[in-house]
Amino acid sequence: MHDDDAVISLDLPMAELSEDTKAYFAKCEEKLGLVPNVLKAYAFDEQKLRCFTELYNDLMLAPSDLSKLEREMIAVVVSSANRCHYCIVAHGAAVRSLSGDPVLGDTLSVNYRAAKLSDRHRAMLDFAWALTMAPHEGGKSTAALHNAGFTDRAIWDIVSVAAFFNMTNRVASATSMVPNPEYYSEAR
């Protein structure tokens, strides 16, 4: 087990960080007011940290037919299905912040089906949930997503974001990753 100040339950000390990584952490501190614990957890190996951040930044921040809020909504629903404490807290805070609606962030964290959602968002989250709960069925059919107005590119991004969070949820849960305390009060 780890103490309250530990980021994860494994004893993986932070590597000597390159100037680029130090600058990235400083940028996080400047923009977010913190360095997310997930980044600190990966900092035992800069190559793994770089791979994680490059994929995360591409999926969550790069241009997409999905809004940043929609991508965060997928992250929360997938994390809720997987019961990933770290990601539910961190991405629930992002949903609250981006939507300006603390009820939405918290409802998605507990039971997205109880949230007031557009037909588009319901189809998107139903697909992400199905892909998470029964990956062998491939999220069933993309027809509901097409009917809700999603382009093939947007569907690719829905699948990619859901898949990414299924992977990161398992890493965070298996290592007992601890959310930054600041996330709990963000946008409330």
Largest sheet: none
CATH class of the largest domain: Mainly Alpha
Shape: globular
Enter the CATH topology name of the largest domain: AhpD-like
Oligomer: single chain
Using the 3D structure, state the CATH architecture of the largest domain.
Up-down Bundle
- Radius of gyration from CA coordinates: 17 Å
User: How many strand elements?
Assistant: 0
Low-confidence stretches: none
Helix content: 55-70%
For the record, what is the CATH homologous superfamily label of the largest domain? AhpD-like
H/E element order:
HHHHHHHHHH
Strand content: under 5%
- Find the structural class using helix and strand composition: mainly alpha
Estimate nothing, just give the exact number of structural domains: 2
In round numbers, the mean pLDDT is 94
Number of helices: 10
End-to-end Cα distance, whole Å, is 31 Å
Descriptive notes:
It is a single chain. This protein is mainly α and 188 residues long. It has two domains: 43 residues, Up-down Bundle (Single alpha-helices involved in coiled-coils or other helix-helix interfaces), CATH 1.20.5.810; 107 residues, Up-down Bundle (AhpD-like). The protein contains ten helices and no strands. The protein is globular, with a radius of gyration of 17 Å.
